[in-house]
Amino acid sequence: MAAACEDLAPGEWALPTDCPGWTVRDQLAHVIGVERMVLGDESPPPLAVPPDHVRNEFAAMNEPWIEARRGVPGPELLAEFAEVTGRRSAELRALPAERFDVVGWSPVGDVPYRDFLGTRVVDAWAHEQDVRRAVGRPGGRGGAGESAVVDRCASTMAYVVGRRVAPADGTVVRFVVTGPLGRLVTVVMRAGRAEPAPDDGPDRPAVTLSMDQATFWRLGFGRVDGAAALGSGAVRVDGDGALGRRVLGAMAFMV
Fold this sequence. Notes:
Blueprint: H1 24-39, H2 57-67, H3 74-94, E1 103-104, E2 111-112, H4 113-135, H5 144-165, E3 172-178, E4 183-190, E5 193-196, E6 207-212, H6 213-220, H7 226-231, E7 235-239, H8 241-250
């Protein structure tokens, strides 16, 4: 993320990104804020009126850190980013092995510390890609970060189908994800709940959604609208088109 922001022109710091409401500058400020919170630094006071893109309490926690840095020149913000992430990395390297087993708070509930760090990998990698897409500096693809992100999206599709779409029992929905990190993700509704299903199971999918791995995680992380992805040809729907459109519209699960 730091490399993607080196030597940016002043106007590039204000470019909008795929993350709703955030510019390139805001992306760095967000990561700075989260890592400062984890380090125990005091948060700026909450905003009296959160921006329109804030939809929940966790998102509201992010905004004061971002607002406090909106007037900071880009190079100074980048220097703070390097200092904070360097300090945080040094802290992590010094932790004893047993610390990673300690259960505590995370955005996904109380989990072992190693699982919390998994959410940090997912968050930081996604925001790096937001920056890279905005400034036209591709990179960072295909490694451990993207693998963790695609895994997170794949594991959440049962929730998307079962809780957000809730089709009839027996309905099978299949996601065909292409690319080096591609995979088949098949879920089936049973007794009002969606659960993973074998890809070679006896039930034919009611709908199959085919896309590349970038479109898959961008939909899951709310970086692209389902209708827009379908209209651009980034997604192909085979089978029940109405159900497919409902699933696409429900895929954005990340806050």
